[in-house]
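#struct-pred

JT: dropping the chains for the assembly here, can someone run the whole complex?
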Amino acid sequence: MKIGKKPKDRILSALTWGCAALTFSVLLFLIGYILINGIPYLKPSLFAFKYNSENVSLFPALMTTIMAVALSLLIAVPFGLFTAVYLVEYARRGNRLVGLVRVTAETLGGIPSIVYGLFGALFFVVWLGWGYSLLAGSFTLAVMILPLVIRTTEESLKAVPDAFREGSFGLGAGRLRTVFKIVLPAALPGILAGVILAVGRIVGETAALIYTLGNVAKMPENIFASGRTLALHMYSLSGEALHTGQAFATAVVLLVVVAGINALSAAAAKKIAKR
Amino acid sequence: MGRLLMKVRLQEKIKPLWRRFADKELLARGIFLLSALTAILAVGLICLFLFARGLPAMGEIGVFKFLLGKNWFPTETPPVFGILPMIVGSIYVTAGAILFGVPIGVFTAVFMAKVCPKPLYKRLKPAVDLLAGIPSVVYGFFGMMVLVPLVRSLFGGDGNSILTASMLLGIMILPTVIGISESALRAVPGELYEGALALGASHERAVFSVILPAAKSGVMAAVVLGIGRAIGETMAVKMVAGNQVLLRMPGEFLKGVRTLTANVVIEMGYAEGLHKEALIATGVVLFVFILIINLLFSVLKRRGAK
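RK: done, full complex below.
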């Protein structure tokens, strides 16, 4: 610190450093606490093929999570991608539809997950008659991540310089060819970063799934069967006093997955920033 | 890039001209347009299903009885459905979260944008992203294991309280508050800072009396989005708030409370008939809160962009 600083400045500076230190020490403490309590319980038996009341294996939940991620991406990514392509590449300036889509996507983005869960339970589970199932859960998740996919794709499409498009048109390519051969490949890392973030949201989701996917502790045999993702598995275990250690271990797995997802997304985003 | 263009040129040569523009273009445009409509369809369906089930229930119970009723006895005969304790509960924990999260978050954002040395920033930015990515069950579990016993031993009571939920939510909204405030602070033109320094202001004075006020609407937008996050959070709150349906006074922050979100997630599993409809109506109230908050957020964001 410099000599002759006013006391007021000193207080502000101390507050700034102090709050930042507090934020990051809370994060460090949380991670450390989970790791220290969870790692001793990460035994091979926790990855046994079947779940039962003696061995609360997280393997079925892990597989269900992967299935739910794959299925919801399969639904949401094409729609999200095409929506963004329409907004950026096709719609004319001042198109009313564009404004409407943007407002609805923003609205969707702000809706809390329990409201998605409620909607999924009413629409997919009851009205369409899918019951508590992988399909109902994945569709609910797909609606939930749609705004994220739209927004990130839109941003990365906008970041592609117009010269690329002009060059492509100038060489005689049509709009469609320009989009798929020129613009989308150039925007791919950004889109990927968004999709990976969406995976992160799915992995961490509980409230939207508990009344759509259900909470059965086994692997779903088909898309109309119920299951539970890792986050739901952990939620159930945390309610049982007997399985606190296993809940910690599941938290470790979740943290590792989330950290990995964040790193991947950042790496993809960096790739687009370099160009 | 050159290679890519060359590849396109080669492929163009192979196909006859008429096939390049004809129906495929139109078909693709149609598909893209239809996809763009799904977002609108989704919002429409969500509104339709929530309002069509929730509003009649509100009518049947009586709007004022429902919104201002102090008692929630869903399984008694006759059942009583009043959600005022939950509305007030949601407001308490959200206000508490803002009280904890906003000062710490804004100071941290100032640190990230204006104080932090660059090498350190490279490490801290992913940390903020990680804070945002941690699932809410993990936060809730952390709250159950650490914050609840902490509050119990410091202040007495059983630890599942408004205070505990506020602290946990305060941590959970940090990444939102930090992220948006930071970009608002970075968007302030550098001349303002330099001008303040040239007039003899210290670094702290320039940051807190010039840059922060200039970024005011961005910071406000961050706060509003934080409110949205806090009011909509379900699992983590449910795990630490105690969930008693009792109308609490502002002084009773060491007692438990149930939020709107927790009400839905706790009772949806077994609710039947009007009880279920009343839970959907609870969701409608939450949804309306969120719509208002979203509107506020986009107004502030637009003002910040100007």
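JT: nice. The mean pLDDT of chain A is 88. Residues 196 and 235 of chain A are 23 Å apart (CA to CA).
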